[in-house]
Each structure stands twice: as structure tokens, then as C-alpha cells.
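Project outcomes to date are best conveyed with an example. Our students and postdoctoral researchers have been running inverse folding experiments weekly, and each run begins with a structure described purely in C-alpha cells. The record below, which covers 518 residues, was selected by the lab manager from last quarter's runs and is presented without edits.
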């Protein structure tokens, strides 16, 4: 081969490598902090632990996988497997795979070990309450640091307390705290053991599996409230005007903007397009800890539920935790110009934090107007989202702090006395929806372990009503009805959500092919 030919081949190789790295950069832009933690855990058998601990982003992980020749443009199957496991299946298209293709070849080409996969699946079903109980039982041997279910299992593995051939400790913990997880462990042991003489499933475990229930049963939540200890409830706080919320009149574009405290119109309307390359992006800002405000226990439950539901609906979800004012501005700028909007149907932005009238708090205590957040995504500021629905859900107080009982804490800070109109928050243009957990001047409630009334009800009703092809306003009407019927154990604390919108058409999400298991 001539030197000219060799040079041409080298140039082509460099261009291909550059294009592939561009693909990885795009995939990284869709992955949040929790996704990175999951990837690091799943790669514990593929990347040296000392190197894995240095990884602060998905790009770092990709670099190590490429250096180990486990990821390349010619064979991106390992990354496809990882994305499939962490339920980022919409990103498979960037690797030129479909979900069906991965499902077809995965059984024979799986690189994530059955043991690693088992631990990951278990971590997905270990709630924060379950995790606290497990750590309590092992307190003498567990460091006093904040842990996730993944980091907890990784620590047990690192200390040789569990391994692919030794699950005794894990079985003991599951039997005592989360018995229904024994099904996964039993399945792993059966598949690992030789076909002849595989260990039978204990009758006690079998009966527990038969009695297993969904995390979100479709039932009256008041029954749950009656069974919970009063001390476990907190509110996101606000002022009260009797037991009923006052409807807020909003005017947009010279017309009255509908609110869901009024009857929804029965007039047939057009439907927003939902057939582009991907559903869209969903951003979740989850503030648990603050520099000067109280913590918000239970909010991680809300964030996880939002992630599962919107991933199920086809969105690429990114979660940002304890976001400062500066970091929030970076996130807003990033998604204002995100290239993914061009091929997306819709955009969702969720904020879980403290708040007061028309504004929310950053983790460092600055108050950011909701309107300022939404204004980044107007047609002028974000042309790629023009004529597409932009949905904002805010779980935060919007009202005045009152003197709560000992079991209630307030998320409202430095209250005002006159609630503003929602007109001050929603941009004066079409295609926006703002869902507030409560009307201006009222409290919103959050259970310290099970999450907030509003977000849990929203997730439940999306799960139940999207398969019935209900539009988003009908779903939020059902959320209003559900939340308004709830109360604390004494029956004195109530809540009324308040959506407002300038939508021109119905938002009807396509029915997902997979069943949602929350």
C-alpha cells in the first residue's frame, strides 16, 4: 500500500473514531447522576475498582471501557446491554440498536454477570425505608455515611460479606425486611445450580411471592393514611381559607386560561404530535438538603417514581440532586439549547424543593421565580420546542407558614400574605402547562418515607390512565380529585393542586408496550 493510501485509511479511522466519540457524548448528555452510579456498579467486573472510583461521569466510564477494548464503534453491544439494564432503552437508537434486537441477542451475549445483574435488580426494589432497616441490622459493620441501595450492596461485596457463591447474609436481610425479594434470589440460585438437584423454593417463600403487591395499588390512599403513625407526616405548608381552595383565574393571550378546579371542556380538540424519533427529555431537580433550610425526607421517593414513570412513557430522564442557584442556571441553559429537542415530541421539567408564592428555593437558599425557570423554554428562547407541549410540575409550598402540629413541618419560608395569580408564573404564550402541588396560599404535604401526596398521585394516575388514552388534563383532574380527598390522620390538613395551562391541543401519550412496575 502506498503512503498516500495509508494516510487516507488513517484519516478515515480517525474520523470514524471521532464520530463514535460524538455518539458517546450525545448519550452522556441524556444520563444523570443516578444513571452514572448505576453504570459504575454494573461495570465493577469490567473496570478496575481504583479506576472506577475515579469516574465522575459516563464519559469517564466510556473511556475506560474503550481502553479495555470492551467498547468500540465496531462492537458497542456492551454499552447497549448497560443502557438496556438501566432502562435507558430510548438511547439504544444512538448505537443503531432497537430494544427488540437487544432482547434477541442478549441471552447469548450477556457481559454483565448474573450475580451483578441480581444485585442491581435487588437494589431497584429496596426502598429507602428497607435500606435504613438493613443498615440498622448491620450497624456495627457498616460505616456511618449516607448510602444508596447500590452503594450498600457494593460495600457488602467489597468487604466479602456477599459473593456469587455466598448470599447467606443477603438472604437473611431479605427474609427479615423484604421477603418478596427472595423470589429473585431463588431464581438466581436455580439458574446457577446444575439442572439436576436444583434447590427447591421454600413453601414459606412461595406463599410470600403469591401475596406480593404492587408498590402503587390502585386504592383509596386514605386507608394508607389511617394505618400510618401520625408522627411520620410532614407538609410543604401554606395558609388556609376554610377547607376549600379558591380557584385562580388566569388570563393568557387575551383569553381565559383554564384551571382544573373548573370543569374541563367536552369539546373535541386536536392532539399534539407524538410520533417523532423520541418522546423527549424529562428533567427532575430534586432538592433534599439545603444550606439554611430544613431537609425534605421522602423527596427521593418522588424523584425515583417520576423517573420510572416518565422513562416508561419514553422520555430520557435526568435527575439533578441538591441544585444550587448557579447549577440550576447551568442546567436551564444546557436544556434550553439541547439538541435532543429537535427530534422530541415533548419536554417535562419537575422541581421538588421548598418554596413560597410563585417561586422555589435552590439548595443554597436562593429564591427563583417559577416564571424565570419556564421562560428558558419559550419559542423565542428555545425554537426547537416551538409548538410542542412543555409540562412543568412543581412539588413545593406556595404559601404562608402556619404553626404546625408536632408531626408536621413546613417547606414555606419568609411568607407573603397576598397570593399572586398564576399569570405571574406561566409564560404568555401557547403550549405550556404548569402543575403546582397546591394553589397559591396553601400547603402541600409530603410523607417522610412514601413521598408527597401530589407527586405520588401524579405517578399513579399516569400509570393507570395513560393506557386508557386519557389526555394530560383529564389525568390532572383525577389527580386533583384524589389529592383533595386526602387528609392527615386527624383529618385537618388538606391540599388542592392547581394546574394552569396555555395548551392548544390535547396531550395524549402513546400507550407504552411494557407494563409499568413501580
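After processing, the design step wrote out the following sequence:
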Amino acid at each position: 500500500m502506498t503512503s498516500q493510501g495509508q494516510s487516507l485509511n488513517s484519516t478515515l479511522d480517525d474520523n470514524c473514531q471521532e464520530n463514535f466519540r460524538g455518539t458517546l457524548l450525545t448519550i452522556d448528555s441524556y444520563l444523570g447522576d443516578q444513571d452514572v452510579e448505576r453504570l459504575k456498579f454494573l461495570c465493577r467486573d469490567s473496570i478496575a475498582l481504583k479506576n472506577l472510583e475515579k469516574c465522575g461521569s459516563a464519559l469517564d466510564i466510556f473511556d475506560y471501557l474503550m481502553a479495555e477494548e470492551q467498547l468500540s464503534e465496531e462492537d458497542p453491544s456492551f454499552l447497549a446491554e448497560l443502557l438496556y439494564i438501566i432502562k435507558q432503552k430510548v438511547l439504544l437508537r444512538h448505537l443503531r440498536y432497537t430494544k427488540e434486537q437487544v432482547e434477541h441477542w442478549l441471552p447469548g451475549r450477556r457481559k454483565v454477570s448474573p450475580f451483578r445483574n441480581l444485585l442491581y435488580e435487588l437494589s431497584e426494589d429496596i426502598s429507602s425505608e428497607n435500606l435504613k432497616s438493613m443498615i440498622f441490622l448491620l450497624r456495627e459493620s457498616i460505616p456511618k455515611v449516607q448510602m444508596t441501595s447500590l452503594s450498600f450492596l457494593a460495600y457488602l461485596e467489597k468487604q466479602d460479606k456477599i459473593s456469587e457463591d455466598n448470599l447467606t447474609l443477603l438472604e437473611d436481610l431479605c427474609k427479615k425486611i423484604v421477603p418478596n425479594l427472595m423470589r429473585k434470589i431463588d431464581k438466581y440460585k436455580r439458574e446457577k445450580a446444575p439442572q439436576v438437584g436444583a434447590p427447591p423454593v421454600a413453601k414459606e417463600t412461595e406463599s410470600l411471592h403469591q401475596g406480593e403487591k404492587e408498590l402503587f395499588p390502585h386504592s383509596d390512599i386514605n386507608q394508607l393514611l389511617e394505618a400510618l403513625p401520625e408522627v411520620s407526616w410532614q407538609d410543604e405548608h401554606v395558609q388556609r381559607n376554610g377547607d376549600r381552595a379558591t380557584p385562580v383565574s388566569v388570563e393568557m393571550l387575551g383569553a381565559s386560561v383554564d384551571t382544573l378546579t373548573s370543569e374541563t371542556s367536552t369539546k373535541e380538540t386536536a392532539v399534539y404530535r407524538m410520533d417523532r424519533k423520541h418522546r423527549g427529555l424529562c428533567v427532575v431537580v430534586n432538592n433534599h438538603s439545603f444550606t439554611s433550610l430544613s431537609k425534605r425526607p421522602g423527596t427521593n421517593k418522588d424523584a425515583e417514581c417520576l423517573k420510572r414513570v416518565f422513562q416508561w412513557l419514553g422520555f430520557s430522564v435526568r435527575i439533578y440532586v441538591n441544585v444550587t442557584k448557579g447549577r440550576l442556571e447551568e442546567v436551564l441553559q444546557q436544556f434550553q439549547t439541547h439538541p435532543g429537542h429537535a427530534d422530541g415530541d415533548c419536554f417535562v421539567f419537575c422541581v421538588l424543593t421548598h418554596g413560597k408564592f410563585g417561586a422555589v428555593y435552590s439548595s443554597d437558599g436562593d429564591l427563583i421565580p417559577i416564571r424565570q425557570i419556564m421562560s428558558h423554554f419559550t419559542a423565542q428562547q428555545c425554537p426547537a420546542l416551538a409548538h410542542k407541549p412543555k409540562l412543568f410540575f412543581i412539588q413545593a409550598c406556595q404559601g404562608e407558614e402556619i404553626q404546625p402540629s408536632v408531626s408536621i413541618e413546613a417547606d414555606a419560608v419568609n411568607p407573603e400574605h397576598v397570593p399572586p395569580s398564576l399569570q405571574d408564573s406561566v409564560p404568555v404564550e401557547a403550549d405550556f402547562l404548569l402543575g403546582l402541588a397546591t394553589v397559591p396560599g396553601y400547603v402541600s404535604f409530603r410523607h417522610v418515607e412514601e413521598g408527597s401526596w401530589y407527586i405520588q398521585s401524579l405517578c399513579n394516575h399516569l400509570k393507570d390512565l395513560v393506557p386508557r388514552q386519557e389526555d394530560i388534563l383529564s389525568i390532572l383532574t383525577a389527580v386533583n380529585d384524589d389529592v383533595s380527598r386526602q387528609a392527615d390522620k386527624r383529618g385537618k390538613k388538606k391540599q388542592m393542586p392547581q394546574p394552569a395551562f396555555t395548551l392548544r391541543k390535547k396531550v395524549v401519550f402513546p400507550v407504552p408496550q411494557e407494563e409499568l412496575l413501580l
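The chain has 18 helices and 14 strands. Confidence is low (pLDDT under 50) at residues 8-13, 195-268, 401-423, 441-446. The training component of this project remains on track.
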